[in-house]
Each structure stands twice: as structure tokens, then as C-alpha cells.
Amino acid sequence: MRAPTDFQKPPVPYIKGWKFTAQSHISPPSTPVTRGCCQNKAKGRKERSTLNPVKRCLKHPPLLGKTEPYTTDLEILDLLRVGDGCNAQVFNVNILGTQSLSTGSYFQLAVAKTYDPLYYNKDEGYLNPFLCVDRNYTHEVHAYNLLTEFQGDLVPKYESSRIHRTVRLVLIEYIEGTTMLQAKPGKIPRHERQQIMKSIIDFETRIYKKIDIGLMDLSPQNVIIRPDSLVFIDFEHAVFNHKPDDPIAQKVDILPGQYISPLIRWKKKNHGL
Ligand SMILES: Nc1ncnc2c1ncn2[C@@H]1O[C@H](COP(=O)(O)OP(=O)(O)OP(=O)(O)O)[C@@H](O)[C@H]1O
């Protein structure tokens, strides 16, 4: 048996200037979230040590969904988060042209978030990359669909879900600003910092109460600060219907399937903020 690191992977193809065509794709429903649902079982761990990563990707194609015949040509402009080991490959793209029947307005510049299992190796094999990218893609798409009324304001506008070869991606609006993680709190007056925290709790509460989305990854890197507003990104860990899909997890006091005042939920919970 070989160590997984003995296998060579092709270099990450997402580089500045690369042009590619992506096809319209309708995501399958969001995958159920149950305890350990994305963990690698013994079989997966063995396969990771015995099979070349490219062959593994071919063996485990993403969930099917529905591919549509409309294509978009894209060119990578800037890399936002790209590399082997990243959860998703995130970069800015120029939309060169679209062959589409849709009359929706397309923006010229978009963020492409690409769920490529070949470069997903978080937690050194503890998690199964194929189950993770299926979960991440389907949950992100489902969340944006539910968040329609917030798009262009509290969350980026959502353009479409796409497929490039066998890899899934979403195109969303680019938001100019600084993530809360990059911001220097010492340079922001206290009342503004308090207003930021209030806006975060208000948003989380509104979507939890109104459209049944639980944000499991609400953290500083997922809040973009603009001069006069906040924009929230990254919904791949969102859960729906106020509860995980697991009977055991449902008994745990985090998402009991009913509305709870934010005063109570935020008192106990560590959101990493
Ligand atoms: N719409 C956007 N506009 C501007 N920057 C963005 C946008 N989407 C993502 N980014 C940048 O790319 C980074 C990674 O994006 P995102 O959080 O969606 O990816 P991720 O792989 O889920 O990240 P993580 O590993 O933190 O969960 C963000 O922290 C942000 O800096």
C-alpha cells in the first residue's frame, strides 16, 4: 500500500488567463445531512492509498442533476482562493459569451466557485472528498435559490449553476470589500463594530425564521464588509428546514425544528465571530 502523498496529481488548472466553457446545470436536491455523512469509511481510506486520485475522480462522478445545452465561455481573471487542499477553487471570471435561452441579465464579471474533488483533501482523508463536494455544491445552490429576495443586497446575486467537464461550479456576483477576517477591528469605531454584530445576528435570525436556513458556517471569512453594508457568502454548509436530517442530531439542542429567540441561541453558541 502506498501513502496517498505518493500519487502525483496534475497541477491545479485554475490559473489566470485560462479560458473554458461551462454548461448550464440543474443541481439535484440538497443532500441529507446526517451524522458522519461526509466521512471516509474504511473502503474510502483504502482506496485513497491504492488508487491514483484522477482515477478515483473518474470512479466517483458527482451527483447527476440535469445538464442543459446552454454554454458560457469564461476566462479566469484573478484567483481568490485556489490550490491543492482548498475546499473549493474560487476565482474571478470574465463572462466572454453565453449561448442561453434565458432572458435573465448576466453580469460581465463573476465569482466562480468550483467544487473540484481532485484538489479537495481536507483533514487528510478523514472526509470523503466526493461526498463533501456533492454536499457543498447542492447546499450552496439550494441556499441561493431560497435566498432570492436577499440577492444583490445581503447576499451576492446568483447567476447560475454550471458544469465544466465533470466538475460543478456556481457563478455569483463579485462583491468588492474586505472580509471581516481581514478587517482590523482596532480601526473600526466601537459603535460600528456593534452595528456589524447586530446586522449579522439580524440576518442569521431572519433567514432562520423566515426561510428555514440554518447557517452552520457563519464566520468572519464569510462576511464581506462594504462601506455601508455587509454581504454574506458561502452557504455550502447551510442546513434546511430548521434541522439536520439525522434523527440523533435532531435530539441535540442546536436545531430543534422550531423558532428560538436569537438572545437564547447566540448566548450559548460559538459562531466563531
Ligand atoms: N462573491 C464574492 N465576492 C468577493 N469575494 C468572494 C466572493 N465569494 C468568495 N470570495 C472570496 O473567496 C474566499 C473563499 O470563498 P468561499 O468562502 O465561498 O469558499 P470556501 O471554499 O467555502 O471557503 P472556506 O474554506 O473558508 O469555507 C472568501 O473568503 C472571499 O475572500
TrEMBL record:
The GO terms describing molecular function are:
ATP binding; protein serine/threonine kinase activity
The name this protein goes by in its record: non-specific serine/threonine protein kinase
Residues involved in ATP binding: 113
Reaction catalysis annotation: L-threonyl-[protein] + ATP = O-phospho-L-threonyl-[protein] + ADP + H(+); L-seryl-[protein] + ATP = O-phospho-L-seryl-[protein] + ADP + H(+)
Q: Where is the Protein kinase domain?
A: 76-273
Which keywords has UniProt assigned to this entry? Answer: ATP-binding, Kinase, Nucleotide-binding, Serine/threonine-protein kinase, Transferase
In the Enzyme Commission scheme, what number(s) does this protein have? 2.7.11.1
